[in-house]
Amino acid sequence: MATVFSNAEGHGSVNKNDFAKRPPMGWNSYDYYDTTVNEEQVKANADFMAKNLKQAGYEYVVIDIEWYAPNAASDRENYQYIPFERNEIDEYGRFQPAPNRFPSSVGPNGERLGFKPLSDYIHNLGLKFGIHIMRGIPRAAVHEHMPIKGTGYTANQIAYPSPVCPWNPDMYGISATKPGALEYYKSIIDMYAEWGVDFIKCDDICNIKGENPYGSRGEIELLHRAIVESGREIVLSLSPGPALIEEAWHLERNANMWRITDDLWDVWDLLKDMFRRCEIWQKHVGGGNWPDCDMLPFGMLCKGHGCEHKSNLTPDERLTMYTLWCIFRSPLMIGGELTLLDQDELALLQDETLNGLNMYGGQPEQLFNDGKIVIWTNVNTKTKVRYIAVFNISEDEQDFHGVKIRPHACVLTEA
Amino acid sequence: MATVFSNAEGHGSVNKNDFAKRPPMGWNSYDYYDTTVNEEQVKANADFMAKNLKQAGYEYVVIDIEWYAPNAASDRENYQYIPFERNEIDEYGRFQPAPNRFPSSVGPNGERLGFKPLSDYIHNLGLKFGIHIMRGIPRAAVHEHMPIKGTGYTANQIAYPSPVCPWNPDMYGISATKPGALEYYKSIIDMYAEWGVDFIKCDDICNIKGENPYGSRGEIELLHRAIVESGREIVLSLSPGPALIEEAWHLERNANMWRITDDLWDVWDLLKDMFRRCEIWQKHVGGGNWPDCDMLPFGMLCKGHGCEHKSNLTPDERLTMYTLWCIFRSPLMIGGELTLLDQDELALLQDETLNGLNMYGGQPEQLFNDGKIVIWTNVNTKTKVRYIAVFNISEDEQDFHGVKIRPHACVLTEA
Amino acid sequence: MATVFSNAEGHGSVNKNDFAKRPPMGWNSYDYYDTTVNEEQVKANADFMAKNLKQAGYEYVVIDIEWYAPNAASDRENYQYIPFERNEIDEYGRFQPAPNRFPSSVGPNGERLGFKPLSDYIHNLGLKFGIHIMRGIPRAAVHEHMPIKGTGYTANQIAYPSPVCPWNPDMYGISATKPGALEYYKSIIDMYAEWGVDFIKCDDICNIKGENPYGSRGEIELLHRAIVESGREIVLSLSPGPALIEEAWHLERNANMWRITDDLWDVWDLLKDMFRRCEIWQKHVGGGNWPDCDMLPFGMLCKGHGCEHKSNLTPDERLTMYTLWCIFRSPLMIGGELTLLDQDELALLQDETLNGLNMYGGQPEQLFNDGKIVIWTNVNTKTKVRYIAVFNISEDEQDFHGVKIRPHACVLTEA
Amino acid sequence: MATVFSNAEGHGSVNKNDFAKRPPMGWNSYDYYDTTVNEEQVKANADFMAKNLKQAGYEYVVIDIEWYAPNAASDRENYQYIPFERNEIDEYGRFQPAPNRFPSSVGPNGERLGFKPLSDYIHNLGLKFGIHIMRGIPRAAVHEHMPIKGTGYTANQIAYPSPVCPWNPDMYGISATKPGALEYYKSIIDMYAEWGVDFIKCDDICNIKGENPYGSRGEIELLHRAIVESGREIVLSLSPGPALIEEAWHLERNANMWRITDDLWDVWDLLKDMFRRCEIWQKHVGGGNWPDCDMLPFGMLCKGHGCEHKSNLTPDERLTMYTLWCIFRSPLMIGGELTLLDQDELALLQDETLNGLNMYGGQPEQLFNDGKIVIWTNVNTKTKVRYIAVFNISEDEQDFHGVKIRPHACVLTEA
Question: pTM for this structure?
Answer without folding.
Answer: 0.93
